[in-house]
UniProtKB/TrEMBL annotation:
Keyword terms, alphabetized: Amino-acid biosynthesis, Aromatic amino acid biosynthesis, ATP-binding, Cytoplasm, Kinase, Magnesium, Metal-binding, Nucleotide-binding, Transferase
Pathway of action: Metabolic intermediate biosynthesis; chorismate biosynthesis; chorismate from D-erythrose 4-phosphate and phosphoenolpyruvate: step 5/7
HAMAP family: Shikimate_kinase
Binding locations of substrate: 52, 76, 98, 155
Localization: Cytoplasm
UniProt EC number: 2.7.1.71
Residues annotated to bind ATP: 30-35, 136
GO CC terms, sorted: cytosol
Keyword Thylakoid appears in the UniProt entry: no
Protein name: Shikimate kinase
Species of provenance: Aureimonas flava
GO biological process: amino acid biosynthetic process; aromatic amino acid family biosynthetic process; chorismate biosynthetic process
Cofactor mode of binding and number, as noted: Binds 1 Mg(2+) ion per subunit.
Length: 194
């Protein structure tokens, strides 16, 4: 038995409150949703799921092949259904495909049922990262940098509607995940145990 000075009972520290809503990462290709999401899930002790990987596993096709075979519109419809279904599976960290948050219905659903986090990154950082896997169908253009810049202009005002935002420039993936964790712990939805 541990002796304590005096007779005062020792109050144990409060257990960290578990997040009850899914935490959903949004942002452009190369922002780090998949890599940071996996780390964050470890830190929160939650399952991790990536919508692109779910879609590839379920269809047994790569995203590039899905785009080529069925077109972008079909892919988007499938993506919206996958995000909606994943929200029914309980708390987890969900990395979305870069375009998922652009769907208005998906945004509404995510606002009601999740905590969304935008991984914001500058063009140079994104270009460097997407170069590691040059198969992304939307970047199969004569000028991928200009394409990515156009996507930034179109999407950043929409991503900015997310509940939380982190800047990922020059920050290691662990540090990005820790920053999200800090922001989450201060977020009213997290504090309320929602
Ligand atoms: N904070 C970081 N620091 C350094 N490298 C990173 C960081 N985050 C991600 N990366 C690297 O950048 C590349 C793209 O990251 P990742 O695949 O996680 O992006 P994504 O947002 O999931 O993109 P997509 O929408 O195409 O799935 C990977 O090679 C990953 O290792
Ligand atoms: O930004 C996008 O629209 C995309 C991002 C990837 O995650 C994939 O979902 C697909 O390549 C489309
Ligand atoms: Mg990804």
């Amino acid at each position: 038995m541990i002796e304590t000075a005096g007779a005062l009972p020792v109050t144990p520290p409060p257990a960290p409150r578990a997040v009850r809503r899914p935490v959903v990462l949004v942002g452009l290709m190369g922002a780090g949703k998949t890599t940071v999401g996996r780390k964050l899930a470890q830190m929160l002790d939650l399952p991790f799921v990536d919508t692109d990987h779910e879609i590839e596993d379920a269809s047994r096709m790569t995203i590039a092949d899905l785009f080529a075979t069925y077109g972008e519109a079909e892919f988007r419809a499938l993506e919206a259904r996958v995000v909606a279904r994943l929200l029914d599976d309980g708390p987890r960290v969900i990395a979305t495909g870069g375009g998922a948050y652009m769907n208005e219905g998906t945004r509404r659903l995510l606002a009601e049922r999740s905590i969304t986090v935008w991984l914001n990154a500058e063009l140079d950082v994104l270009m460097e990262r997407v170069a590691k896997r040059p198969t992304r169908p939307l970047l199969q253009t004569s000028d991928p940098r200009a394409t990515l810049k156009a996507l930034m202009d179109q999407r950043y005002p929409v991503y900015a509607q997310a509940d939380l935002q982190v800047q990922t420039r020059n920050v290691k993936r662990e540090a990005v995940a820790r920053e999200i964790l800090d922001l989450l712990q201060r977020h009213p939805l997290f504090k309320a145990g929602a």
